[in-house]
Design a protein that fits this description.
By secondary structure, the chain is α+β, with helices and mostly antiparallel strands. Among the domains are: about 150 residues; about 70 residues, no CATH class. It is built from 12 helices and 9 strands.
Length: about 350
């Protein structure tokens, strides 16, 4: 059973106990001093039974309400400022009442229009015209993040995508948060269709114009691949980020990393790669470190077992050529930014 709402708790605390009036003093049935017999007053007992019956009906109504979809409130005056809205969304997230959260957010901010789909089994969101000057409660990144989490907890993934798409111009971080939520989805939570980084990348590249796709959104996809140890997905994301040398298959690229020369070798039509470093030690395993900087934003940290191919790559290293910007330079082979700190 879902937790009681604030109004239900207050209503129960204000009730009288059922047996409160059963042991109250009643007029004496007989007066031995005068010998006059007084008939007992049954009106008090009837009143006690009626109150108990009323309480029983109220409890049954509350139980039937709690068994259905939970309603957070019955009053429209609970949310008067942004702090009230934040508290309300926190409560909605705990109760998984995404419909109440979405409706209240649209009412108090005057930014969203909620429409039923043509099939009648879904909800579509549109941004209200002139939403910035509508005069409602100002929604912040925290409000939108809570709304995303509430919809994600209820497995309303289409609403997560719509919120990220609608508010991308008002809040760039909201789009990044929506991509991160989609990138961390699992197959058992999605059911049918794409999930994980594939769904996030599909949403980003099909619903968002290229000029509005932030690099941080791709970083969120790669971070999800790192958590799930999906190194192939991380490489696919890097190759989809735009023109860069990694899109040229069977090409060789080198960069400077911690004063040790490293090389990247693509093979088998781009289905795999090797990276090795000259540290003067054995290299039976290698770590994949695409250049990381706040400017180019290529973030990844994956362990890749080279296995029997290690010696073959080391043998091919002697015939490789470098593309570094110089002996002391730090040159990113992905974005070609000289300031990229690798």
């Amino acid at each position: 059973m879902p937790p009681l709402t604030l109004e239900q708790v207050l209503a129960r605390s204000m009730r009288l106990p059922r047996k409160h009036m059963k042991h109250t003093a009643t007029p004496m049935a007989s007066n031995p001093a005068t010998g006059i017999s007084t008939p007992p007053d049954n009106s008090l007992g009837r009143g006690d039974k009626s109150v108990a019956k009323l309480f029983s009906l109220i409890e049954k109504d509350e139980e039937s309400t709690a068994a259905g979809r939970p309603f957070i409130h019955q009053s429209n005056n609970l949310i008067r400022n942004s702090h009230d809205l934040l508290t309300y969304l926190h409560t909605a997230k705990r109760m998984r009442a995404w419909e109440d959260a979405l409706r209240s957010f649209a009412e108090v901010t005057k930014m969203l229009l909620i429409n039923q789909t043509e099939e009648g089994d879904g909800v579509s969101l549109t941004l209200r015209e002139g939403a910035e000057g509508a005069g409602g409660v100002t929604a912040s990144v925290s409000h939108l993040a809570l709304l995303l989490d509430t919809c994600a907890a209820a497995k309303q993934w289409h609403l997560v995508e719509q919120i990220g798409e609608i508010f991308r111009s008002q809040s760039r971080q909201t789009l990044i948060d929506a991509v991160a939520v989609l990138a961390n989805t699992k197959k058992e939570t999605i059911g049918e269709g794409l999930y994980g980084w594939e769904r996030a990348l599909h949403f980003l590249q099909t619903r968002i114009p290229p000029e509005e796709q932030p690099v941080e959104a791709y970083n969120a996809c790669i971070a999800a691949c790192e958590t799930a140890l999906e190194w192939e997905g991380a490489l696919a994301i890097v190759r989809s980020m735009g023109p860069n040398p990694l899109q040229k298959l069977d090409s060789k690229a080198f960069f400077r990393h911690n004063r040790n020369w490293c090389s990247v070798r693509w093979f088998d039509g781009g289905r795999g790669f090797f990276l090795f470093r000259d540290r003067g030690e054995g290299g039976e395993r290698s770590r994949y470190f695409p250049p990381t900087s706040t400017r180019c934003g290529h973030v990844c940290n994956l362990n890749i077992g080279l296995g029997a191919e290690w010696e073959r790559c080391v043998g091919e290293r002697s015939s490789s050529t470098t593309t570094s910007s110089g002996e002391g330079g730090n040159h990113c082979v992905i974005c070609r930014f000289d300031s990229c700190m690798v």
